[in-house]
# Entry
Amino acid sequence: MKHNPGYFWKLTDFSGVEFLMLFHDGEILHQRENVLWSISDLRELEITDCQTLLLLESESCPYLALTLTDQQFLKLDAHKISLRQMLLDSSIENFSNAGKATQLLNWYNTHQYCGRCGAATVPHERERALTCGGCTLSFYPRINPCVIVLVVKENKVLLARHFGKASAFFSCLAGFMEVGETPEDTVVREVREEVGIEVENIRYIKSQSWPFPSQLMLGFFADYKSGEILVDGKEIAEANWFNVDALPITPAASISVAGQLIELFLKSFDMQNQLNK
Ligand SMILES: [Zn+2]
# Structure
């Protein structure tokens, strides 16, 4: 199978591509639960002068991502699903591919003009980048690093309930990295700002790409050092120490690194208890 050079594909040339992920109005299109469409599904759609982005460079199966117009969408016998719903209902692989496609399409749509001189951008010949036709400045897809941290104190973990949509859950503390910070600096600052606690012995555990809209979540454990819980009242509605035997509702480990951090701590705590018996 032969790839086109570069990351941008003209819709007039489908050689080497079998599958597409289709989008309309920010949601993913599917047909009988299948989110991958074949080239033959698109014959009726009269796609001509749009442009697609290469999604995956797998040797055996490259996917393209494409946003349909209203008219094209109406011609297709398709259902729509949001990325958040896919997180709950789809396989990890489908969610991960759809998350990557969503981020690339957002980036492409919001970088059609140069931020420095205002001229239109064009696809880079070899790299996944858009280059200014006026001043040649290039724009690459951006990810935003965040830390997420489980603060622990003996047999207790610090969990917080956030204001907003998912407010029934208690979860780890989290926040965006700022310019010039190491992830460990961010852990110290965020915990201090959100709940007024000082932490130490910060250790990296694992990470997760989180496409809402474009984060890289870096997961840590940190030990309590000093201070009393004092919530900021802006992001955090409530925070408490919870005994490992009496946890509130937390995010599922199957979908989020927050849930995985909690699960890992519970496992290591159990193992420690077994060793001490
Ligand atoms: Zn420019």
Remarks:
- The pocket of zinc ion is lined by residues 114, 116-117, 119, 132, 134-135, 137 (CB under 6 Å).
